[in-house]
Amino acid sequence: MMSLTAIQDMDHLKELVEKRGMLPILGTQISSFHFQFFDDKSDDKDCFLKVHNFPSNTIDGWRIKPYNTSAISRSLVVRYSSKSAEPPYIQVSVEPDETGATNKISHALSIDGIQTSSDASTVPWNIEVSKNDLLSTTPSSIGPSDVAALSTERVRAEDTGIKSITDSLIAVLRNRQVVLSKVFEDSLPDIALGLSAANIITHSVRKNPSYDSIIRNFITGLEMKSSIAELEVHCMDFLEALSNIGGPVTGAADMLRRKWMEETNLQLGTKKVKLS
């Protein structure tokens, strides 16, 4: 696994990364560079660091694909500076996908949303991986700024992280059960129809919906996910279905999105996360 994480250029945050390696979150093999978010939006819009140009097919028998998400928002980077949680990160899976895969693969992904010395908003993230070791080289054309980004080999107990996030998502639902059940009550048929179309609930729940049965189906789906990316997609499907209902239900979806993002590092913006 390769990871790209972003933190503000503050001494205590850099010390945390450089001296402690952010284990078990990010690992110990770390290189870093400085950048600014490319701010071409108005003040009320968030800015994003985005990684793209993932190959759709294998390269020399290797598969390169996003594992959790492909974007980091500036607001999450700022939020991390005041919280003792893991920083936002983009994780990329690089692994041989075929029997005849070459011993080494080299490929450049594109990072958008970064201000460079040449005013360009896209820079390469050159990834070199062999079957014996894992190396990451960071862009060299980025000038000093207020934000430090770190490209790392990420070593983490992924299952533990997924369970922790899942528990946090469920806790938000349970802590707001009273108000959510009241909001759902007057729109259960419409909610059930939307969630059934999103494959969140079963056909039997759609035919005879209740708040409890809907939430049970949603939580069951959460507990079956095996990656952070799958958690994000499941939550976004749920939130988008609720947002389409309108009125208080849309307000409830906005509240859940906000609370979930406060409690976790999931990327739950208004644009749906896609799995490749």
UniProtKB/TrEMBL annotation:
Lineage, highest ranks first: Eukaryota, Metazoa, Porifera, Demospongiae, Heteroscleromorpha
Official protein name in the record: Uncharacterized protein
Source organism of the structure: Amphimedon queenslandica (Sponge)
